[in-house]
Structure formats: C-alpha cells, structure tokens
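A.,

Following up on our hallway conversation. Structure tokens first:
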C-alpha cells in the first residue's frame, strides 16, 4: 500500500486533514492498519509555536494519531447506531418497520404533529419521511427536550414515502422514538445492545458532561467551532447534536477506526452466516441492508454506491453498502468481495474549512481515490 501511504502523506502536507486512521478487513482478516498525522494542526510563526488548540486557560498540544485515538464519526451514527438500534427493536418484536410513528408519539408526546400521521418507521430509516434535510436547531433552543419538540413541530416538505431526501431531522426523530420505547438515552442503549456485547469499548457517544470518558480516552480534533469559539477535541462537531448534549440520532458517535471496522465486520459476518453471537438476526438485517426500492440508492441508514462519482470509488462492487460522515469519516462493506473498509479523517479541521474559512472541499476527490487504491491492490 505504498501508493496509499504517499497519497496520505501528501494530503497531510497540503492540510486536507491533520490525521487519519485506515482499517481494512478482507475475507475476515485484517489486511491493513494505517495511521498517520497528528490530532490537529500546529503552525509555527516567527520561530514561536502557535497552537490552534489554545483555549482560555487550556492549552492543548497535538500528538501523533494512533490506533487508540477516537474520531468524531458524524453521520456514521445513523447506520451504526440509530438504524441498528431501531432494527434490533424490530428483531425483538417490539415493533415493525411499517409501524406508524403516531402509535408511539400519540401516546408519549405532548406536542404531536398531525402531519406525521402517515410517517412509518421505515420512512425515517430510508430518508423518505417528508422532513427537511436540515434546520438550525442550535440557534432556536438550548436543551434536548426543547430540541426534540422543535423537530416534532416542523411541517413536512413532501408527502412521506413519495421520494428519498437525506434528512438529519428524520434521524433525530428516529433517535427520540428509540429512546421513548426503551426509556433510556441513545448512549446507554448503544453501549448495552451493541458495544458491550461485541466488546467495542472505543465506540461510544461522548456526552458533553462526560469528563471521565474524555480523561480516559484520546481524541482526534474535528475542527474549530466558531460558535463555541474553541477547538473540538472529544466534543461533538455537529452544532445541532451539541444541543442534544452530544447524544443524537443523526450524529454524536465517536470511535476508533478498528472498532468501526469491527462493527462493519460483524454486520458482514451476520449476512454470511459466520457471526457466533449476532446482535441482530440475519433476516432482519437483510431487510435493513436491502434497497428501499429498485430505483433507490438508500437502504435503512445505509447507501449503495452511485453509478457515477461514488464516494467508494470505481472498484467497489454494486453489492456494497456504506456511509460517509461530514467530518471526513466513512465505512463501506463489500459483500461480494468480503471487504470492510474504514477510513476516518478529520477533514473539518483542514486549511480550506472550519477555522480557516475556505469553501473548497478537497477531501471529496481524495476519498474515492483512497478506496480505488485499496480495492485495486486487494481484488
């Protein structure tokens, strides 16, 4: 993988990201474990080190990225946590994928929106609920309860089930529904149903109040928040997730590249009938990973490779599912080639983003190139 190493080093030198972790499993075995860069950039001016991690009274020093470092997974939270927890509930007989969300919200919510009557759980899962893609929550409310109520009050922008439109709001609502049914927050539920059974101790939510977690674990910075006026290290990058105390259905999960890859491998093992202690049944998981319709690229939280300009490159098989995160993260599972590729980077700290105010996203072209190199050498 010398070409991949060269591409990564060049990217770091060009400040496309400061650090990266790559884990690849092929036919059940780890074939690549690659880490490079630092947890955030440091600049030197007039011979004096300038640390962009310097907050009031809290000066942080960048360190080399290692397999122990956790990245902000951003939207990987959707398939790895929220979709998976919802599907586990279906697998245990608590509900069905076609259960109307009104059956849950009517009973528990004081602010039920009648426009939601026609939304089913599967509509939230496959981004066809009618909810908008995004709205600024952090500027309107300041706590989880009000944030959920704010999302529930939103009018629909199209008829549920009539089309697919990627939606953070849909997954925020889905996360609330899971919490209502099981009477616990998502951080506890993910740990209980997924992380602990699979011994994935470095795959978790990091609540803003979780000082112990931040002391015990090491994090790669995800960027500089203009709103919070600080470098984000072990603190969720997504401003809307921040309002949810870092625990939301659309974002908030942190993890090491190896733990993310291990969860991807577990999903692959279940489908291939090789998992000894599956967290979810094969039949249910097969439904989760199936295309929502013949002309849709969406499954339940997962995405199939697009015909052109796929984030997974040109070499991945059509029988693959994956997801990308805003911060520079991705996971792809290739069922035909028994391949799991996890690439975690912190592109949101780049010189052309975040604190530096740029608009060009150079990482978008880099991501498929890295996948092409990996798959090209293995398959």
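Then the amino acids I'd put at each of the 379 positions:
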């Amino acid at each position: 993988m010398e070409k991949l190493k060269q591409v990564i080093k060049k990217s770091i030198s060009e400040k496309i990201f400061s650090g990266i972790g790559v884990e690849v499993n092929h036919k059940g075995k780890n074939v690549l474990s690659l880490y490079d860069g630092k947890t955030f950039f440091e600049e030197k001016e007039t011979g004096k080190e300038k640390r962009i991690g310097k907050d009031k009274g809290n000066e942080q020093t960048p360190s080399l990225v290692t397999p122990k470092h956790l990245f902000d997974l951003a939207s990987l939270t959707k398939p790895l946590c929220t979709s998976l927890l919802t599907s586990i509930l279906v697998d245990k007989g608590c509900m069905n994928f076609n259960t109307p969300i009104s059956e849950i919200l009517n009973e528990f919510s004081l602010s039920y929106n009648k426009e939601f009557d026609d939304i089913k759980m599967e509509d939230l899962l496959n981004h066809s609920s009618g909810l908008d893609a995004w709205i600024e929550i952090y500027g309107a409310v300041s706590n989880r309860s009000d944030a959920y109520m704010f999302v529930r009050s939103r009018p629909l922008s199209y008829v549920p089930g009539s089309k697919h439109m990627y939606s953070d709001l849909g997954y925020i609502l889905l996360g609330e529904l899971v919490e209502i049914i099981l009477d616990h927050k998502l951080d506890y539920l993910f740990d209980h149903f997924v992380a602990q059974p699979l011994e994935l101790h470095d795959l978790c939510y990091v609540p803003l109040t979780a000082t112990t977690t931040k002391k015990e674990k090491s994090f790669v910075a995800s960027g500089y928040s203009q709103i919070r006026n600080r470098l984000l290290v072990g603190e969720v990058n997504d401003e809307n997730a921040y309002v949810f105390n870092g625990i939301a259905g659309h974002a908030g999960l942190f993890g090491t590249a190896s733990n993310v890859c291990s969860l991807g491998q577990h999903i692959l093992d279940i489908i291939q009938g090789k998992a000894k202690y599956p967290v979810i049944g094969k039949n249910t998981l097969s439904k989760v990973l199936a295309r929502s319709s013949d002309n849709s690229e969406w499954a339940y939280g997962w995405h199939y490779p697009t015909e052109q300009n796929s984030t997974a490159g040109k070499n991945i098989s059509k029988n693959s599912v994956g997801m990308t995160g805003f911060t520079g993260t991705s996971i792809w599972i290739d069922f035909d080639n028994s391949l799991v590729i996890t690439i975690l980077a912190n592109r949101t700290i780049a010189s052309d983003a975040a604190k530096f105010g740029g608009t060009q996203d150079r990482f978008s072209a880099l991501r498929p190139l890295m996948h092409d190199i990996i798959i090209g050498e293995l398959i």
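The chain has twelve helices and 13 strands. Curious whether your intuition agrees with the design.

B.
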